[in-house]
Amino acid sequence: MRLARAEGLAVKLLVPKLLYPIAERIYADFFASLRQCAVVEQSHQGQLHKIIRMWVDVPAGFASLAKSGANPFTPDEVLDTLRAMTAAASASAGKGAAK
Q1: Can you tell me the distance from the alpha carbon of 83 to that of 88, in angstroms, rounded to the nearest whole number?
Q2: Residue 31 belongs to what domain range?
Q3: I need a labelling partner for 46 at 20 to 30 A (CA). Which of 55, 66, 69, 91 fits?
């Protein structure tokens, strides 16, 4: 979060204490203020991402950053994803403004 904010990226973090059953109201309130979101999880199949999509209305830019194995995500991996998502959103917004 510190690295992303230092680069001027607007980021928020939700760390669930319970993965299932889904706390629908908590997720819905959190997603209500977002245009895009990355679910970062140490799971090859992105299980949390799929479960959330089943139970909660999610932002259009709802992406999964999933990874299997014993090596956790590095801050740079997450930051690169946030940069890419921000760049894609900016490019998309620019195309909409050009119409």
Answers
A1: 9
A2: 2-98
A3: 91
